[in-house]
């Protein structure tokens, strides 16, 4: 049986309807990965199923050649089963479900591939011993020494640390979360204030914002994400996903080709996050580095769903870049490389995204379920960024999203990562964990009650260490004094800064 493109699209639609109905009573007719969506929303489940069938069709026939016999059978079978079920034609036919084509490098203007005068990365030293490199990123609001730790200021404020203290600690790049800023105080208000630098009066240090997608998808994939992040270091911002999910129920997020609908955790109002709207919001916020919209799939995911997710992220990222290039406003845009721990998909993602005129590369998506898996992923993935000199991959900065515990930092740096963000140092400070050169200590422990005159860290020159000792910090934590968290967080930020400075020196000396 030969079928036309039109009739096969019709078939998918009918089948989608039929299967939705079937699965109400019998769960066998829908692919397992689509059933998984029922937790989140019926719409996602349907669109998953449609995409599932369409992707299979695109991959085998590219929409031009005829379908093979085997597929004809599949489609016919599906068709047969739907005939008996889909007598109710009340639902209006939806628009064609064909996915838009992926944009190619030629879809972007030539000038977009030229170097920017406001954003530049220079490599000062390449280690003779590893892929590690020391560099400097020049932004309109100051430089970033790399490898560098990026502190996370979710609501445009570090938890417990005054920006002035962070400046003193030589913290350069700071990460703010678009999702939180969108919900409050809103991108327009920050634009009215003159952008995030003026709003925070942090005028000569750079900011980076994300797209907001990470938090939106953390809501959708909450339980899996929590499982993934149970080790702590893997989580980027928030930590309230359990709260969100309970409050908002299963339809907190709906994903379509257009973007992601979600509800505000503050007041339940509806937001639509699209590639275009996140870029507009990030332009209003005005960070030096911005990030395109991507989809964050959960770690435990069927490969076919991951394939579709990576493709969607690529289409969203290309759309984001087009929107960004309409008015660059002295901002740089990093792509987000996806593909989970799947070698083929990661490679495809690197190949595609590095072919487009992005200013840097962020490594995102599922990064494995622990430090060991992350290390293995970076082992085979990072060399891809040294290939292909025609697109100058090597000469652009690479950012690791959401992971910056000390062990992972060292693992990432020797494999060629330039910057990484995490709320880890400020988050653990809240629980009384102090980072020191001899490993972290729990200052609440009774053994510090009489540590009179002992600095938190012998080598540290932060304001906490120069004024207070371990015994006083122990007391403040035990007494639940708010300043305790602040003093600990300030120290931890200084610790990260000193650590990165040491690492840069070790690279300069070709020790790592
Ligand atoms: C680009 O954005 C800036 C800042 O929002 C605005 O002042 C300017 O008019 C825009 N330019 C164009 C061509 O839209
Ligand atoms: C702290 O200050 C001393 C004295 O100026 C200096 O030798 C030391 O290297 C500083 N420590 C750090 C971690 O920078």
Automatic annotation (TrEMBL):
Q: Where do the record's region annotations for Disordered lie?
A: 60-103
PANTHER family membership: PTHR43468, TRNA-GUANOSINE(34) QUEUINE TRANSGLYCOSYLASE (PTHR43468:SF1)
The record's Gene Ontology biological-process terms are: tRNA modification
Q: Which GO terms describe its molecular function?
A: metal ion binding; tRNA-guanosine(34) queuine transglycosylase activity
Please tell me the species this chain comes from.
Nitzschia inconspicua
Known NCBIfam families for this protein?
Q_tRNA_tgt, tgt_general
Q: Which UniProt keywords apply?
A: Metal-binding, Signal
Q: Which InterPro entries match?
A: TGT (IPR004803), tRNA_ribo_trans-like (IPR002616)
Ranges for domain tRNA-guanine(15) transglycosylase-like come to 131-511
Name the Pfam families on file. TGT
* Protein name in UniProt: Queuine tRNA-ribosyltransferase
- Signal sequence span is 1-24
């Amino acid at each position: 049986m030969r079928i036309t493109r039109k009739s096969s699209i019709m078939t998918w639609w009918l089948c989608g309807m039929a299967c939705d109905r079937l699965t109400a009573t019998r769960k066998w007719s829908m692919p397992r990965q689509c059933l998984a969506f029922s937790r989140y929303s019926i719409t996602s489940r349907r669109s998953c199923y449609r995409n599932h069938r369409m992707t299979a069709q695109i991959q085998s026939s590219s929409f031009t050649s005829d379908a093979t016999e085997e597929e004809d059978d599949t489609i016919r079978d599906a068709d047969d089963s739907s005939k008996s079920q889909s007598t109710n034609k009340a639902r209006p036919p939806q628009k064609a479900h064909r996915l838009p084509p992926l944009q190619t490098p030629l879809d972007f203007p030539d000038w977009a591939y030229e170097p920017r005068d406001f954003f530049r990365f220079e490599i000062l030293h390449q280690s003779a011993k590893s892929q590690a490199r020391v560099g400097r990123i020049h932004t309109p609001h100051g430089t970033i020494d790399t490898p560098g730790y990026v502190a996370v200021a979710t609501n445009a404020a570090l938890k417990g640390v005054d920006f002035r203290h962070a400046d003193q600690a030589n913290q350069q790049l700071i990460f703010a979360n678009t999702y939180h800023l969108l919900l409050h105080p809103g991108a327009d208000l920050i634009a009215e204030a003159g952008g995030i630098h003026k709003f925070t009066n942090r005028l000569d240090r750079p900011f980076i914002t994300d797209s907001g997608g990470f938090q939106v998808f953390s809501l959708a994939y909450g339980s899996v994400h929590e499982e993934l992040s149970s080790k702590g270091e893997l989580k980027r911002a928030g930590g309230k996903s359990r709260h969100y999910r309970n409050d908002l129920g299963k339809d907190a997020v709906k994903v379509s080709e257009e973007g992601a609908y979600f509800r505000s955790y503050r007041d339940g109002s509806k937001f639509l996050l699209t590639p275009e709207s996140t870029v507009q919001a990030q332009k209003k916020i005005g960070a030096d580095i911005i990030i395109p919209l991507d989809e964050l799939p959960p770690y435990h995911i069927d490969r076919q769903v991951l394939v579709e997710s990576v493709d969607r992220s690529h289409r969203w990222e290309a759309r984001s870049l087009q929107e960004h290039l309409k008015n660059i406003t002295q901002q740089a845009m990093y792509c987000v490389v996806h593909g989970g721990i799947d070698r083929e998909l990661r490679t495809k993602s690197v190949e595609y995204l590095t072919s487009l005129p992005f200013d840097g590369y962020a490594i995102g998506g599922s990064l494995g379920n622990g430090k060991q898996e992350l290390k293995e992923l970076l082992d085979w993935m990072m060399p891809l960024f040294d290939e292909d000199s025609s697109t100058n991959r090597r000469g652009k900065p690479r950012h690791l999203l959401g992971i910056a515990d000390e062990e992972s930092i060292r693992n990432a740096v020797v494999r060629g990562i330039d910057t990484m963000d995490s709320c880890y140092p400020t988050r653990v400070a809240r629980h009384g964990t102090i980072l020191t050169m001899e490993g972290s200590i729990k200052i609440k422990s009774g053994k510090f009650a009489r540590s009179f005159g002992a600095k938190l860290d012998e080598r540290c020159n932060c304001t906490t260490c120069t004024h207070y000792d371990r015994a006083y910090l122990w007391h403040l934590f035990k007494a639940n004094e708010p300043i305790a968290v602040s003093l600990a967080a300030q120290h931890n930020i200084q610790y990260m800064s000193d650590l990165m400075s040491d690492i840069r020196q070790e690279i300069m000396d070709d020790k790592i």
